[in-house]
Structure formats: C-alpha cells, structure tokens
Specification:
By secondary structure, this protein is α/β, with parallel strands linked by helices. It is built from 9 helices and 7 strands; from the N terminus they run H-H-H-H-E-H-E-H-E-E-H-H-E-H-E-E. Strand 6 and strand 7 form a beta hairpin.
Amino acid sequence: MRDDYYFNVKRKRPEDIHEKVTDYFNSKTIDSYASSKNMMRIQEKITSRALELLYLKKQDLLILDAGCGPGFASTYLKSIGYKVISLDIISKFLYFYNESDLNPIVADMCFPPFKSNCFDAIISISALQWVFRDINSKPMQLNLANLAKSFERIIKPKSEMIFQFYPKNDVILKEIGKIITQNTNLDGNFIIDNPKNAKKRKIFLLLKK
C-alpha cells in the first residue's frame, strides 16, 4: 500500500473529541445529521465515487453498507438497483429506514453477524475513522484487525470492498495498511482524490479478496 503521501489535519474532528461514536451521535446530533440535505448530497456523491472505484459489472448484487448511519448511501445504492443490507451500531439511525427495502441491522461493524461468502461487495462511507484513529491504542488495533478479517470472511471470493474515511494523518493511514496486510490476504491500495486540496481531499481504501 502506498506510503509516499504526507498530510496532517490539525483541526479537531468529532472522533478526536469523543471516545466512542455513540457518545457523539446522541439524539439531537442524530436528528440534525439525518435531516441534513447537504450531508445527504455529500454522502451520495461519495458513494457514487466509491462505486466507480469498485467497478461492479452488474447491478443486482448484494452490498453491505457498513456503518450506514441514517441511510444516505444505502438509499442511493437501492435507488440504482443494488440489493442492500445496512448495518450500524447506533440503533436510532435505523429508525430512518424503510425496513422492507434496506434490511437494517443493529451490530458493530467490527463483528458483523453474517455467514461466510455472502456479499458481492462491501461499502463503508465515513465510518472507519471511528474504528481506528490512534496508533497506540491496542483495542483499536484489535478492532481493525477483526474488522478486516471479518470482512474478508463474509465477502465472496474475488469480490471487493471499499472504505471512504477521514484519517487524521499519513501515520494513521500507513498503520491501517500495515494492520490489514498483517492480518488478512486482502490485496489493495489507498486512492486519494484531490490530494493537494485539504478541503476537497477524499481518501478511499479499495481491497480485493
């Protein structure tokens, strides 16, 4: 995985302030986030870009939306023809879903409750930074390792997964690549859109089983 890109975000993000994602997304924050049209447009745009990078050849595939939030990515995926299972650790997010369409499940994405080889692809938008953001945290290292191994298990052979996320700096980026390489046989790389523009920069991790 690439190790030639330097960046360091100085401003504090929610994951820098709150220990757990459940601490940040309280009832007030959830309602504001879920009702934001701007956030919906941003998430749909990121999801569209993630699909470009996955380059799926069919549309009637089963995709896991891991860390789905209020369903921006899931709804978009469903609208263009994919079958979607949505997973998030915060149960209130799933109140915004049409259950018959999107099959929302309350679970920790580090411990997904699925059988082996069942998904054609996995997409995770703006969630991985909550799983791993401190290179010195053993629990985070273990959670990331378990997430990688679990996703490798539940995705079908020769299928791909993609994460879009917001790492604080290149040190964290490199550590994520190292942990995944050491714990799985997944092959892939980081893809960085607009690398020289901090406001527009988007970081993806594309992995293949």
